[in-house]
């Protein structure tokens, strides 16, 4: 039977849209030959509306803040619907800087962030080490972003698949290469990078190399905050999971190749161990490459596709796919069910990249 909604792409965004549409009473099919195998399988899962608020991206930052605010309720509802935890943790994020040059660089950004009214407080080295005793004594300064949390994207996908299935969503292992072959009331393109070929929208791959480590003897990592570090001009983040895993990332490269390079691993591990020396004793369990779906203005593309009746897109989430999952899903489900876009979507519509004025 022809479904009300077909979603192309079973990453967190596509699955969450499907789940939310099903909750509104729509029949939903999701198409993906390999659910959860895209950027989310590599992503660290930082929910960072503050630490990833960058110069000149105020509208995007507002969207990140609004979506982050939905995370507590979303994680709770999803965990109950799926009967599975998603690794949502609220210990907050420490921004740490190794040298005085690193402090100066970090300070420029957190001064801007504080100017936007975002919660980030400056901490002295002694205060940083009181929060994380494992930090190197060489760390010169830092800040604390209490509202920047984390979730485990791999658990998130598992939970979304279960919750969506329980809500009646069907997942078809089919690869969609032409939207005209999909028969549904509305087609939602949530295919990350794949949206470029399907829609012609300017979504490009931004390569990220990411490592996974594991604390010795099955113990949890010796730190509990997400650490975002500046270490001798190198940028790094470390995300501790309660099961002992630590995600270390990430490069940001305008490339499509899938090579894990010695230089990137060296840079990430040098920065990580400079900030948290105990990491050197951890097991290196995984080296991976993922591709963020980037757009020309770094902001996602969400809305009805001009000139293509019945096609809605939700792609281009770049570095923010996990934090933007709850809000994107709600806004797209509302759009699909009412046909009316929420004004919050005005800056993010596909029309900013198409020539069709409609
Ligand atoms: N948001 C983290 C990253 O893009 O690496």
UniProtKB/TrEMBL annotation:
One of its GO terms (molecular function) is flavin adenine dinucleotide binding. Residues 4-335 form the FAD dependent oxidoreductase domain. It comes from Polymorphospora rubra. Pfam families: DAO. Keywords: Oxidoreductase, Thiamine biosynthesis. It is an enzyme of class 1 (oxidoreductase). Its EC number is 1.4.3.19. Pathway: Cofactor biosynthesis; thiamine diphosphate biosynthesis. Coiled coil: none annotated. It catalyses: glycine + O2 + H2O = glyoxylate + H2O2 + NH4(+). This is glycine oxidase. GO terms for cellular component: cytoplasm. One of its GO terms (biological process) is thiamine diphosphate biosynthetic process.
């Amino acid at each position: 039977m022809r479904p009300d909604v077909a979603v192309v792409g079973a990453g967190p965004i596509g699955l969450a849209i499907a789940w939310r549409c099903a909750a509104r009473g729509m029949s939903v099919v999701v198409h993906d030959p390999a659910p959860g195998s895209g950027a989310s399988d590599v992503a660290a899962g930082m929910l960072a509306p503050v630490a990833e608020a960058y110069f000149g991206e105020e509208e995007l930052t507002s969207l990140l803040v609004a979506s982050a605010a939905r995370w507590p309720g979303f994680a709770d509802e999803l965990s109950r619907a799926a009967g599975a935890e998603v690794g949502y943790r609220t210990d907050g994020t420490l921004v740490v800087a190794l040298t005085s040059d690193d402090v100066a660089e970090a300070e420029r950004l957190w001064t801007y962030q504080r100017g936007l009214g975002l919660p980030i407080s400056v901490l002295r080295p002694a205060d940083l080490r009181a929060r994380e005793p494992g930090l190197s004594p060489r760390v010169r300064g830092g800040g604390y972003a209490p509202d920047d949390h984390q979730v485990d994207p791999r658990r998130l996908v598992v939970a979304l698949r279960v919750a969506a299935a329980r809500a009646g969503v069907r997942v078809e292992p089919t690869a969609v290469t032409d939207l005209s072959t999909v028969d549904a009331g509305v087609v939602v393109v949530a295919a990350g990078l794949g949206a470029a070929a399907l829609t012609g929208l300017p979504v490009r791959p931004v390569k990220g190399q990411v490592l996974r480590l594991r604390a010795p003897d099955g113990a949890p990592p010796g730190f509990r905050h997400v650490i975002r570090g500046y270490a001798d001009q190198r940028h790094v983040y470390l995300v501790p999971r309660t099961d002992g895993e630590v995600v270390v990332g990430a490069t940001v490269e305008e490339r499509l190749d899938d090579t894990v390079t010695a230089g990137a691993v060296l840079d990430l591990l040098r920065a990580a161990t400079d900030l948290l020396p105990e990491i050197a004793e951890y097991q290196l369990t995984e080296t991976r490459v993922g591709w963020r779906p980037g757009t020309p203005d770094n902001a996602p593309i969400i809305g009805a596709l001009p000139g293509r009746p019945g096609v809605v897109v939700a792609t281009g989430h770049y570095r923010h796919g996990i934090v933007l999952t709850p809000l994107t899903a709600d806004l797209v489900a509302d759009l699909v069910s009412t046909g009316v876009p929420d004004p919050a979507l005005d800056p993010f519509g596909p029309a900013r990249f198409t020539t069709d004025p409609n």
